[in-house]
Amino acid sequence: MALALLVPGGSGQLGRELAALAGPDLLVRAEDSAALDLTQTRAVIAAVTAFAKAAAARGDTAAVVNAAAYTAVDKAESDRARAYAVNVDGPRVLAAACSSRGLPLIHVSTDYVFPGDADKPYEVDDETGPKSVYGATKLAGEQAVLRSGARSWIVRTAWVYGAHGANFVKTMARLEASRDRLSVVDDQRGAPTWTKDLATGLVELATRATGGQGPTARVLHATGAGETTWCGFARAVFEELGADPARVSPCTTADYPTPAARPAYSVLSGRAWAEAGLTPLRPWREALSAAFAEDAAAYRPA
C-alpha cells in the first residue's frame, strides 16, 4: 500500500518538488493548470473523484495537497477577479470535493496573511491582517477551506525557492553573473524555505493525515528555521556561488516601491508544527547550502 497524492499546481516550484519525491511508496499525480484548473468546478470534482476511486482500487491511502495559487503579488492589485477565482473560489471547490470523497486536504498558504508589523515570529493563531490583494485572497482561501467540512490543514510558508521555476535564488545568481554590484532590500525580514524541505514536510503531514493521526491544530507554519533579510539572503547566495557577498549593498523598501505592499516582518513560528510531532525544517542557511550541493546547476545561469 502506498500514499497517493493529488497535487493541483503540479507545474510550480512546490508541485514539481513533490513530484520529484515520488517512489514505490509515494505516488504523486501532479497536475498543472491546463490539466486541473481550480476555477473550473466540474473539472475539479471530476479529477478528485477519479483520483479517489483509482487510489481505492489500488488499496492506497490518498490525500490532496493544493500547491496551486495565483502568486503574482503585484499583478493581483489590478487583477483582483482572477486572484480571487484561483486563491478563494478554487480552494473552496477543491475542499468541497475532498469532503465529499473523504480525502484529507493540505492547503498551502503564505506569510502575506499577516500585516508584517510584528517583532517576533507569528504564531498560527496571531491576528491576521493582509495588506495586499494577494494576501487577502490567500486568507479568504484559508477560511473557505477551514469552513468546508473537509479534513483539512492549512500550511503557511514563506520565501520559497527551489530547483524548479523562477525564484529569488536564481534571480540573484543571474544578477551576480551580470552585474558588478547590486542593491537588495534590507528592511524586510523572513525565513527562506527550500522546496525540498517543505515538500518532505508536507508528505510527512499527509502520511499522518491519511493514517488518522493528523494534528489537532488545523493551521500550521512550515518555513526554514531562523530569519534574515532579502539582502542577507542575497549575500548568502553569493557565498554559495563563490562570489564576494560585499558586492550586495543594502537598501530600503522605499527605494524600490511596488504596487503591492510587502510585509516588513513575516517570520513564522514553527511551534505548532513541532508540537504536532512533525519534523522541523532545517535552518535556512543550512538548507541553502544543501540546495546548491544537490543541484548547483539549477541555480546558476546557463
Element layout with pairings:
Layout: E1 3-8, H1 13-20, E2 26-31, H2 41-58, E3 61-66, H3 80-101, E4 105-110, H4 133-146, E5 152-157, E6 160-161, H5 168-178, E7 182-185, E8 189-190, E9 193-194, H6 195-210, E10 219-221, E11 228-229, H7 230-240, E12 248-251, H8 271-275, H9 284-299
Parallel strand pairs: 1-2, 1-3, 3-4, 4-5, 5-10, 6-9, 7-12
Antiparallel strand pairs: 8-11
Helix pairs in contact: 1-6, 2-3, 3-4, 5-7, 7-9
List the keywords.
single chain; 302 residues; alpha/beta; Rossmann fold; six-stranded parallel sheet; two-stranded parallel ribbon; 40% helix
Fold and architecture overview:
The chain is an alpha/beta fold. Helix content is 40%, strand content 16%. The model has no long low-confidence stretch (mean pLDDT 96).
Question: Which strand order spans the largest sheet, edge to edge or round the barrel?
Answer: 2-1-3-4-5-10
Q: What order do the helices and strands follow?
A: EHEHEHEHEEHEEEHEEHEHH
Oligomeric category: single chain
Coarse shape: globular
CATH topology: Rossmann fold
Mean pLDDT: 96
Can you tell me the number of structural domains? 1
Distance between the termini: 41 Å
Q: Helical residue percent? A: 40-55%
Architecture, CATH level 2? 3-Layer(aba) Sandwich
- How many β-strand runs? 12
Number of helices: 9
Strand composition percent = 15-25%
By secondary-structure content and strand pairing, the structural class works out as alpha/beta
CATH superfamily: NAD(P)-binding Rossmann-like Domain
Tell me the major beta sheet: 6 strands, parallel
Level-1 CATH class name: Alpha Beta
